[in-house]
Every structure is written in structure tokens, then in C-alpha cells.
Amino acid sequence: MATNYKFKKVKAGRDHIADNFHNALSLSDMAKHAHISPYHFLRVFRDTYGETPNEFLIRLRVTHAKKLLITENHSVSEICEHVGYSSLGSFSSLFLKQTGMAPTLYRRKLWALSAEPFCFPSQAIPACYAYHFLGK
Amino acid sequence: MITSIAHATIYVLNQDEALDFYKNKLGFEVGDDMKVEGGFRWLTVYPKSNSQLQLVLAEPKEGPMFNKEAAEKIRSLITEGAFGAGVFETENCQQTYEELVAKGVEFIQPPTEQLYGVEAMGLDNSGNWFSLVQR
């Protein structure tokens, strides 16, 4: 029961991140929602989910940014703001680190692969589905 | 070593209607909703706050994998309830059941005690069954 109680608290913190990833979020904000001390939250979160709260936050932001880069015609700085970063520089370098490409290059590469802009190339979905539904 | 399951497929009769059901009735979040070259719509949903496993809502259509006859056969099997969307977990089966019934979700079994917890069985709007389990 004690474990379940602890899990519920960490999950509340994780829910808070998932719901608010597009806003500025500090570790103490996250921990506050879990009613645990920041350091303890960090440790229990990592043990439970296999990634730190910050890694989870970055993952959500980069995933969302990728989607916006392809489906929306917003500028990179608009997208940066949209996913919760105030500095374009730190967003770009983070994106580069995560995907191996700068945001603009990522957009250009995927748009080039697609027959029409704002339409994902089949490489954007798991290959088994592309094969199953598109034959490639 | 395989560490987790990222996507599982559920065949639906109509993606727009299925999206409405999973989003507005079951309260799922939309993961991806994108048009892929070749006219395929990649549509995934997941329960709020846990995006680890996403359900791919796919329409069986004539294409590389299915001929016309096979696609139609699958559609009629969906309607007959031959496929399951899986097991959805809840913290309170009775409460979730009542919320979903109020939203018009059809159930074929009310919350019932089982060896592994309390389980209700419902249908999505294509006819796929799903279990609602409290462990």
C-alpha cells in the first residue's frame, strides 16, 4: 500500500508535466504537485519511469516541436515558444542534440520527402505501418 | 531486450468517428493525427498522462495489404465484435463505468469481481470490445 501511495504522488507530478510541458516548469514546480521534496521526486521519478523529470519534459517538447515543424507553417521561433522555451538558442541546440538535426533542416528534409508540404512522408511513421498500409 | 510496447493497432470503421469516441467519450488524448503520403491517415490516441503505449486507430482499406474482399471482411468482423481494443486500466471501475455510461458508452458487462480485480466490458463505436479493469 505504501508503494502504491508513493507511486500516486509521483504520477501526479508526471501528470502535471504532461499537462503543462508548454509552460516554463522547474523541478520544484513538478515536485510541489507531487508533494515530495524536489530531490526525492527526481530520484523516485527516475526509478519509476527510467528517465528524469527533465528528460521526460524535453522528450515531450521535442516530440511536439517535430510535429509542429512538419504540420504547421510557423517559424522556428514561434514553435520554440509554443513548446515552452523562451530562448531560441537553447531550443535549437537541444533539438539538434535530440534529433541530430537543426529544426529548419529537420523541416526541410521531411518536407522534401513528402509529395506535398504539410503531409508526412511515410518515413515519419513506423515502417511496419508504412509497409502494411502504403506498401513501402 | 525489448523494453516496452509503443503502438498497438485497433481497426475501426471510420477514423473521424473513432477519434470522437476515444477522445470525447473515453477521454483519451490524441498522439499523432497526420496525413501521410499515399492518403493514409496516421492516427494514434493514448490515455491522458500515459503516452507510453499508443493505440493506432486504423481503417481497413483496400491497399497493399488487403484486397477489396479482405477489407470488407474485416469491416464486417469488426461490426460483429470479433476484435478487442485491449484492456484499459482505471483506479475505480465502478465510477469510470458510471461516467462512461452517462456519456452513452455501451457496456456488455457491468463491473464484476474477477480474480484479478474488478472488470467491466464495453464496446467502442465500431463494435470493438474493451475491458475496463481496476486492479
From TrEMBL, chain A:
Which Pfam families does this entry report, sorted A to Z? Answer: HTH_18 (PF12833)
User: Which GO MF terms does the UniProt record name?
Assistant: DNA-binding transcription factor activity; sequence-specific DNA binding
Protein name per its UniProtKB record: Transcriptional regulator
Q: Which segments constitute the HTH araC/xylS-type domain?
A: 11-109
* PROSITE patterns recorded: HTH_ARAC_FAMILY_1, HTH_ARAC_FAMILY_2
Tagged with keyword Lipid biosynthesis: no
Instruction: Write the record's keywords in alphabetical order, separated by commas.
Output: DNA-binding, Transcription, Transcription regulation
TrEMBL record, chain B:
VOC domain residues: 4-135
Instruction: Give the PROSITE patterns listed for this entry.
Output: VOC
Q: Which residue ranges does UniProt annotate as crossing the membrane?
A: none
* This protein's name: Glyoxalase
Q: Provide the taxonomic classification.
A: Bacteria, Pseudomonadati, Pseudomonadota, Gammaproteobacteria, Alteromonadales
